[in-house]
Design brief:
CATH class of the largest domain: Mainly Alpha
Distance between the termini: 98 Å
Membrane topology: Single-pass type IV membrane protein
Number of helices: 5
Low-confidence stretches: none
InterPro entries: SNARE, v-SNARE_N_sf, Vesicle_trsprt_v-SNARE_N
Keywords: Coiled coil, Membrane, Protein transport, Transmembrane, Transmembrane helix, Transport
GO cellular component, one term: endoplasmic reticulum membrane
GO molecular function: SNAP receptor activity; SNARE binding
Radius of gyration: 33 Å
Number of domains: 2
Helix content: over 70%
Order of helices and strands: HHHHH
Number of strands: 0
Oligomer: single chain
CATH architecture of the largest domain: Up-down Bundle
CATH topology of the largest domain: Methane Monooxygenase Hydroxylase, Chain G, domain 1
Shape: elongated
């Protein structure tokens, strides 16, 4: 049975090496080519997950005295798969240098413009915060006034009830 596990290990090693290479290429691509590679990697990751399930089943069939060693190896493979999945997720949203430059612009003098824009946004945020605080204060005061009115209505209601009972 351990020969099946070792065969699965070889398949795992080969497939994960291919995946690592493909995942590294994803950020450098764009358009349809990138989409196709992402779909291909996603499919291969699913195959690796199925392979891991097979390895897990195989470990369960191994005699208890040898099982601990194989469980340790399986655990490290699972960790490697998790790392690949995280790398894949990051690579799908990563941009190549050209796309990054296109999005951010490569104007050397833009830092002053960005600084001014940042200051404008900071001032706008501070004004909005002050308005929110003022609105909150009004809500608190309105709530307090509502409780006062409610108390007054209650006292009058009790007074009317007492006067009705006394008469």
């Amino acid at each position: 049975m351990s020969s099946d596990f070792e065969s699965y290990e070889q398949d795992f090693g080969t497939t994960t090496a291919e995946l690592t290479n493909k995942i590294g290429r994803i950020p450098k691509l764009s358009g349809e080519e990138k989409t196709q590679l992402i779909l291909n990697v996603d499919k291969q990751l699913e195959e690796v997950r199925e392979l891991m399930e097979q390895m897990d089943l195989e470990v369960r069939e191994i005699p208890i005295q040898s099982r601990a060693m194989y469980n340790g190896r399986l655990k490290s493979y699972k960790q490697e798969l998790e790392k690949l999945e995280k790398d894949f997720k990051r690579s799908r949203i990563a941009y190549s240098d050209e796309v990054r430059q296109e999005l951010l612009g490569d104007d050397g003098g833009s830092s002053e413009g960005q600084r001014a824009h940042l200051l404008d946004n900071t001032e706008r945020l501070e004004r909005s915060s002050r308005r929110l605080e003022a609105g909150y204060q009004i809500a608190v005061e309105t709530g307090a006034r509502a409780r006062e009115v409610e108390g007054e209505v209650y006292r009058r209601h009790i007074g009317c009830c007492i006067s009705l009972l006394c008469s």
